[in-house]
Amino acid sequence: MALDATMRTRTETDSIGTMEIPADAYWGVHTERALENFPIAKRPISVYSELVRGLAMVKQASARANREIGALSHEKADLIDRAAQLVIDGKYHDQFVVGVIQGGAGTSTNMNANEVITNIALELAGREKGDYAYLSPIDDTNRSQSTNDVYPTAIKVGLSLMLRSLLDELELLRKAFLAKAVEFHDILKVGRTQLQDAVPMTLGQEFHGFATTLGYDHQRLTENANLLYEINMGATAIGTGITTHSDYAPAVLRHLREITGLDLATADDLVESTSDTGSFMSFSASLKRNAIKLSKICNDLRLLSSGPQAGLGEINLPAVQAGSSIMPGKVNPVIPEVVNQVAFSVAGADLTVTMAVEGGQLQLNAFEPVIAHSIFQSITWMRQAMWTLRVNCVEGITANRERLGAMVGSSVGVVTALTPFIGYAAAAALAKTALLTGHNIADLVVDGGLMTRDEVMKQISPARLSGLEAVTAAIPIVQPVENIVTDQRV
């Protein structure tokens, strides 16, 4: 970090040498070196507040565990505990300044947390920042720990906390689609397969399908969240637990469970757990699934609202902003479009996570920073995308009832509902005639003597056409198929 000549500083020393640190900064020399070494993303870890809170929770749990097993004095442990709580409560997050992308497997992030929490604790004790002879970032705040167990555990805690808000937003979006399904329950429309007219359905059924698929995604995300509950605290450097007391791991787990409210568990094999990041890959994949399916729904919304005059024009999306700098009156589906772009980003982030997981070597994966950044960004963007899709789009969607009714009335797709009664060949002949002449299907069936008007209207009622009322038996075919004459006139 470039220092102004007039800025007050303090001097801190590490194994490499001395550095001047801004006097009012709560970070120290290790963080300052990271600021110089990793000017990559221009985004500090504080952009992910749940990650900062996760780090503070790990430090707080460790302080309590170290006090319990006698590895730290009550005075030091209490100071660290109180300082960490302030960070958990949302204070001092602006002091977590190291970049989200960094070398060193997260060591810079861990040291940023150690230094900030230590200097907060020093102030609580009435001491000056940097008085590490009284309370040390490494010997005390990092006691019984290594970056290699602190960092992945903090990521998992942070992601678990963040997922709660994502799931809440996903549920609100599901309910918004479900409300539209109820609102549109009686509106018939033409269903489509391969972008071609198929058979009738209701607009409510279509929106109910959207709600259902989001409900399934909620289940999958919840299931995959359990993968984040296995932690490796007590593993220290490579999983052997060097520098820790044998009672530390169960103690820190107990305290971390209490602090986070999460059903955490210590991995059975700490060596494997320290080197493996597969849980992040699986969790990222479930995020991608949700994003891609949400993007497909947005594709459908854009198609259904296309036009409004020369497209499908079945529904109206809320007009939230002008769509063109040159075409007056044009309004574009900008909300679904932005959700599509978020989905593209999430898919790319998932590939990044996959490659970073593969890139691990021997007893550690050095690429957890980009894994963390990719997943935290995906959740952040998806949460906001779901909110804007719900509030600025779905809740305001209306149906073009007259247009939908006209399209169903002129669609040859309704003849499919009559095939159990008049046979496929006759239905196909009638469909061809309707396409050539534009005549109404019901009229052609009645005029051909195949069914009475009452019978036809019963079978093409909204309940029958949408499958809400099952067809149980066929009525007798009135006229043989060969007697059907196809009108070739246009």
TrEMBL record:
Pfam families referenced in this protein's UniProt entry, alphabetically: FumaraseC_C (PF10415), Lyase_1 (PF00206)
Keywords recorded for this protein, A-Z: Lyase
Coiled-coil region list: none
Fumarase C C-terminal domain: residues covered: 415-465
SUPFAM superfamilies found in the cross-reference section: L-aspartase-like
Superkingdom, natural source: Bacteria
Protein name: Aspartate ammonia-lyase
Organism of derivation: Microbacterium kribbense
